[in-house]
Amino acid sequence: MTQNLSTAEQALRDAAREYHRSPNKGKISVTPTKPLSNQRDLSLAYSPGVAYPCLDIEADPSLAAEFTARGNLVGVVTNGTAVLGLGDIGPLASKPVMEGKGCLFKKFAGVDVFDIELAERDPDKLIEIIAALEPTLGGINLEDIKAPECFYIEQELSKRMNIPVFHDDQHGTAIISSAALLNGLELVGKEIDKVKIAVSGAGAAAIACVNVMIGLGVKRENVFMCDSKGLIYEGRPGGFDASKAQYAQKTEGRTLADAVNGADVFLGCSAPGVLTAEMVKTMADKPIILALANPEPEIRPELAKAIRPDCIIATGRSDYPNQVNNVLCFPYIFRGALDCGATKITEEMKLACVREIANLAKAEMSDEVAAAYQGQELAFGPDYIIPTPFDVRLILRIAPAVARAAEASGVATRPIADYDAYRESLSRFVYSTSMFMRPVFAAAKQKLQRVAYAEGEDERVLRAVQVAVDDGLALPILIGRPAVIAARIAKAGLRLQPGKDVEVCNPEDDPRFRQYWETYHQLMGRNGVTPENAKAAVRRSNTLIAALMVHLGDADAMLCGLVGRFDGHLEHIESVLGLKDGAPGFATVNALMLESRTLFIADTYINDNPDAELLASIAQMAAEEVQRFGLPPKVAFLSHSNYGTSTRPSALKMRAAREQFAKNVPNVECDGEMHGDAALSPEVRARALLDSPLNGEANVLICPNLDAANILFNVLKTTAAHGTTIGPMLLGCSAAAHVLTPSSTVRRVVNMTALAAAQAQTVHAG
């Protein structure tokens, strides 16, 4: 790798290394799903109890899906001969990529993965090794194997193995690009069987793309494919392998420019910059350009649009509209295939996936998606021909469609009996993924907001601000002594440049000091604060400065609380910013992302013993905050009592709070008073009450008092193996302001920066 790196590239390299190294080595691990806490557990997990499921599987192999993890286990297999944009780097060097693929499988669709890197280049030996893994795995995802061997390996494994085999580099790209093609053609009013397609690249991805497009109606005689030697034509000297030969044309054309001339569609799976502006000029009216080379496409969208404003263009990049990203497909096609026990991935299953992706881009935007992507115009059109990778509806639509197609193809060994129930079960993957912060980040980036940090000298803040600057989340304002900030930036090895990347407000010497203390005196003069008191208070409290900055319009949002008492910070926010119209008081909600679910717990920090009316209002504010993450809130009012089993005051209070909430917010699912296990388990709930209006798991837990909420949150936070926390999120404030806690990590500060920035946009819009 070249050593002449830009500052940004160096930062990315260092961050990537640290990400993979810390806090644990690598990105995946194996976690037991059953308790092993006593002798009985041990006797069930291993000898002698394990013998019984073993014998059952011997008698009926289909029971492996019932008694083992095989039915949810995919092997991501490579020999490292064609890795990303890195080429032939070998199996060991490819392992970080394969682990990353495993993370995507798990996070997006709940599919477990073994990454398997094989030191074998002989295709036949690879086939033997992979085929021998069939008893272990429920599916095979071939990854980063060079062409043309990848075609042969996939074909032979599909014949030999009785589980799904999928080469994502081929078929994932093919599915997404074909969906883009369908929608692009609809927008430009062209028929798929009449368009001419020019193809740059003749490797695994390009050929698979064309194969799927032909399945959708493209005519083979209208496809003009080019490799590194030029256009593939009959009789070309030197010949070509069988995978290319099927697309050899009788033509006088010899170059990519010849192929592109008059083409309706350009498909690029090749190299950066090969499609020139001059070539684009020669394309047919309203051309569709699928420039999929990554990270640098065959042509940049801005160049293509400058030459042909009538074009529709998609790339593999996330910083342009219409990203052709395989994560739109592979987690969900495997989810559906595994759940119905498919023995292979058929063409019908691929086409079902194509159509669902294409249709989703045209679907009316759901409330969840609208909330998740505030400020973005996600409407079907030239800049939105395929869905965003974080549209929560992908799994809910693709997996059932794939399972149906598998059944229709005759390859489903466990057909789905009830598709409505199946879709409901899939929602657990949507709402438990820690990717749920992504919509907030996307909203923050829409219009950069000025975020003031009261503890601007804290190293956690400085590290978080570096991320915020690099990722374009906010315009940071650090409140602190410039010399101290500069010294700590240098000590931490950060690249922040005060005055350029961040604004610095020096609490000891800022020209706005007089304006700030006079404003504070105006606000608090009738509460016993004299001018001298106001001066001293502003000098003494950076949180007060941050609140005054927001109040006076010098900042859009603020974060504080990493040092000192929560109540002290809140007092300053309350005195300067106050409550928003209609809010009965302040409250807090904390989000906790656990392995299997995400929970929002309130009120964790402010109200000692709120009455029923205040609890109902807190629940309403918390539900509104949940919607910011693109999630449908489901509210449970927790109690020691379960549906009237107690008449103690706290139980009656929670029952009344639920009734008031249901009256105020009839469109949000809620129930209570109820036990904690009933809130998270429909089965437990059903044993106590048959007609609960709450479906599935609750994700907003309203506790009867401060002690209960704070204890619940901290116990869960500490006991969760991989829990991530967001918050505390301050509810009821007139501005985007949050009080963090001394235990906050850098990641929490980053997350809260994005949240505060996203909220500030809403406040300004309102």
Model description:
The protein has 766 residues and is of the alpha/beta class. It is 45% helix and 13% strand. The protein is built from 31 helices and 21 strands. It has a six-stranded mixed beta sheet with strand order 7-6-5-8-9-10, with helices on both faces. Strands 18-17-19-16-15-20 form a six-stranded mixed beta sheet, sandwiched between helices. It has a five-stranded parallel beta sheet with strand order 13-12-11-14-21, with helices on both faces. α27 (649-664) links the parallel β17 (634-638) and β18. The longest helix has 21 residues, at 168-188.
Helix and strand arrangement:
Elements: H1 7-21, H2 39-45, H3 51-59, H4 64-67, E1 73-78, H5 95-109, E2 112-117, H6 123-131, E3 139-142, H7 149-160, E4 165-167, H8 168-188, E5 197-200, H9 204-216, E6 223-227, E7 230-231, H10 242-245, H11 256-260, E8 265-268, H12 277-281, E9 288-291, H13 301-307, E10 312-315, H14 330-339, H15 347-362, H16 367-372, H17 393-409, H18 419-432, H19 438-446, E11 450-453, H20 459-471, E12 475-479, H21 482-492, E13 503-505, H22 513-524, H23 531-540, H24 542-552, E14 557-560, H25 566-576, E15 587-593, E16 598-602, H26 612-628, E17 634-638, H27 649-664, E18 669-674, H28 676-680, H29 682-688, E19 700-702, H30 706-719, E20 724-731, E21 736-739, H31 746-765
Parallel strand pairs: 1-2, 1-3, 3-4, 5-6, 5-8, 8-9, 9-10, 11-12, 11-14, 12-13, 14-21, 16-19, 17-18, 17-19
Antiparallel strand pairs: 6-7, 15-16, 15-20
Helix pairs in contact: 5-14, 6-7, 8-9, 8-15, 14-17, 15-17, 17-18, 19-31, 20-31, 22-23, 24-25, 26-27
